[in-house]
Amino acid sequence: MIAIAVVVALTAFSQAAPGGAPSEAVAARTTSTPSRALTPSGAARSVSRPVTVVGIGDSVTTGTNCNCETFVGLYATGLASERGLKTSSVNLGVAGWTSSQLLTALTRPGAFRDQVSKADVLLVTIGANDLVALESSQPGGCPTTCYGPLVESVGQNVEQIVAAAKATQPGHPPTILVTDYWNVFQDGDVGSAENGQAFQSWSDMLTRAESARVSSAARRAGATFVSLYEPFKGNGSKNPTSLLAADGDHPSSTGHQLIAATLLAATPALIP
After folding, report:
1. pTM here?
2. How many contiguous H segments (helices) and E segments (strands) does the chain have?
3. 253-266 and 71-83 helices cross at what angle (nearest 10)?
4. In sequence order, what DSSP letters do the residues of 114-183 get, joined into one string?
5. Which residues of 73-100 are buried (b: 16+ CB within 10 A; e: fewer)?
6. Among 9, 76, 100, 251, which residue's Cβ finds the most Cβ atoms within 10 Å?
7. CB under 8 Å to 187, separation ≥6 — which residues?
8. Cα separation of 25 and 252, whole Å?
9. Residue 241 and residue 245: Cα distance in Å, rounded?
10. Greatest CA span in the chain, whole angstroms?
11. pLDDT at 22 over 70
12. How high is the mean pLDDT of the chain?
């Protein structure tokens, strides 16, 4: 059994969010394993520096209402264990951020952009907050023509986010993994109880529409798209309550573990 030593350090990150969002703390984590990694051919290669994993996005990334280790740190630990790497992780998620706010932070000089420029692997989860204005809509009153423009805007922003992240380090572009959501609003037992089945069916349709647009945007920009819908919901009939926090909106500890495992399974064999 290989022993894994984990050192967790919390450092202050004083970057103010665009639009007046509060500052967030950045969690930095280093995971060490023997400094030999396997290439896809099975031959060992020497690893002289840690692989830096950076997570950017919204409250799913920050771990809101979970009080648990987020998928960003879990992913970095799993990557170290599976591939014999040294990894470090930084969580730059900001609760409440929209795709426009994330894009702004990536395209202006500052601490946020500087941190992203150090990523070897970048994990991106964004877009649910762009649709908050629709949450008060009656399902029958917001068909595709109603939510389509917002979904399209998210897709355009995601494509630009990937491009902006690559531009932070043109000589060493990171491996970028972009996720979708199981639901852009509440789900599981809490969602059904508070919103009713008609709303849940509509939010599922909205979620699938955004997922399809984010998928095409991420792939067009050269990132790896990782769907969280199927792991959480199956074909749409699975109840994800056990994977959600008490608010029915954010992932629980089990949910974060599932996200990390799903990202690991989708990570390309070669990391620059």
Report:
1. 0.85
2. 9, 9
3. 40
4. HHHTT-SEEEEE--SGGGGGGTTS-GGG--HHHHHHHHHHHHHHHHHHHHHHHHTSTTSPPEEEEE--S-
5. bbbbbbbbeebbbbbbbbbbbbbebbbb
6. 76
7. 200, 203, 232, 233, 240, 241, 244, 248, 249
8. 20
9. 8
10. 58
11. no
12. 86
Residue labelled with tokens 């990570």: 267
Domain boundaries, the chain: 5-266
For the domain covering 5-266, report its CATH number: 3.40.50.1110
Please give the helix or strand (H or E) that residue 36 lies within, else none.
Answer: strand 36-38
Which residue's entry shows tokens 């007046």?
Answer: 20
Total residues belonging to the chain: 272
> Are residues 53 and 137 in contact, defined by beta-carbon separation less than 8 angstroms?
no
Integer-rounded Cα radius of gyration of the chain: 18
The two tokens of residue 55 are: 């997570």
Residue 26 sits at φ, ψ, to 5 deg, of -105, 125
CA 262 to chain centre: 11
Pairing of strands 121-125, 175-179: parallel
Amino acid at 47: V
Give me the percent of the chain exceeding a pLDDT of 90: 77
